[in-house]
Acetyltransferase (GNAT) family protein
Amino acid sequence: MRFTDGALDTQSAWFARLDPMLPAAVRPPDGNVISAALPDGTRVAGVLVQTRLAPDAMATLWSALEVWELHPMLGEHGMPQLLDQWRRTMARRPTGPDSSCLVTWPSRDVGAARAFLDHGLVPLSTLAIRTGAPILPSPGTLQVRRATLRDIDTILPLAMAELEYSAMVGSTVLRPGAAQVKRAALTRHLDQNDPVWIGERDGIAVALAECWFNESVGGSWSETRVRHGLWGYINSFSVAPSFRGAGIGREMISVVHRELAAAGTIGSFLYFNPPNPLSTVFWARQGYRPLWTIWEVRPASALR
Ligand SMILES: CC(C)(COP(=O)(O)OP(=O)(O)OC[C@H]1O[C@@H](n2cnc3c(N)ncnc32)[C@H](O)[C@@H]1OP(=O)(O)O)[C@@H](O)C(=O)NCCC(=O)NCCS
């Protein structure tokens, strides 16, 4: 089954009504098409894509190893029926313990949220954006500078502290090889001169912001998530545990926002976990708001 332009238009029109910051819908990737009939006889469909991660893939830091991702192709109606069909499909597939069913959908579609909850999916992550918010000045004594490859041993513990915290409240998985995977990823970003900042107080590294630039253009991954343009992406943001709640995050992010804006970005985005009691409040106060919610159930066999 090929998705017609009509199906894409229906989805784009629904997205535009839901949230002006959503990009237009794009064709789903190749995979297994599942479909369901609505009471009025019309059909809705989605594409189910199975991915198996290599043990050293960066995505192992936040993902199950075996992912069954649904890409719904519908507008306002039909999510409950499509999820029923997804459940029937999964019941016929053998899945392992380190597996998940996952679907990413506009946060403001609360009708769909009800259907996801009813099927056992939980909102593990939120992609949040910030555009046009004023940069809050936050003067203080934090020294913020760009990190270099020489700082890798200093910033790795800060990155791991963020992973440890996030593993308690969201999708992050602290696998035995997580530190090596994170070290390799940080090294690559520093090596290609991506913006990574280190915050120091009295010469001690107390904060890390690992960021990069993301150009949303036709055919890129990011055009499925954010409108076209140059964006700043905040991948990891961490304050050392004993320094949290004292304004360091605020000082650090005001520098990051200023630098990202100076580089010509139209906004910034990041992921946070809705059960994180620190970051949810922190990011909202810094001008971020939900755009997409990543709904997951682990293991995949728990989809109901
Ligand atoms: C989320 C995180 C980065 C925020 O950094 P932080 O330094 O703790 O945040 P701040 O101190 O700037 O702000 C947090 C609170 O401290 C308050 N605060 C600010 N300055 C303060 C000061 N001088 N004295 C006391 N409290 C202060 C802030 O007002 C804020 O509280 P409020 O929001 O209730 O007003 C940090 O808590 C952290 O690393 N958490 C664990 C990892 C994590 O969740 N990372 C983000 C993943 S998306």
